[in-house]
Design a protein that fits this description.
five-stranded parallel β-sheet, alpha/beta, 5 helices
Length: 123
Amino acid sequence: MIVYCCQDLLFATKIRSTAESMGIPTRPARHAESLDHRLHQVDDGKLNDPVTAVIIDLEMGQLGLTLLAQTKAHNPDIPVVVFGSHVKVDDLQVAHDRGADFVMPRSRFSASLPSILERLEVL
């Protein structure tokens, strides 16, 4: 299951609907507690399979970096994709330096979403 951390409802819907159309299970995590539940497969009445990857939108600010650290502390082998504004080069670099496996501008993430999801599903 791929977890996506995104407060922008348009992007969250795009990730969920694209994954759904491809038959890839996803769940949202909008804060540290919900990510913790996903990582530890807490039964909340919905699918909580093992997390195979995490996608984080840097528009979440410091919370995005916290979720990155939380994921890597739980299991450093879980691939993390981080995307953000192309003009926030420093933020993208910080995410890379803190362990994000894939870092890209929002436009590239959006244009490549199906192939990104496909790649994450087989990792």
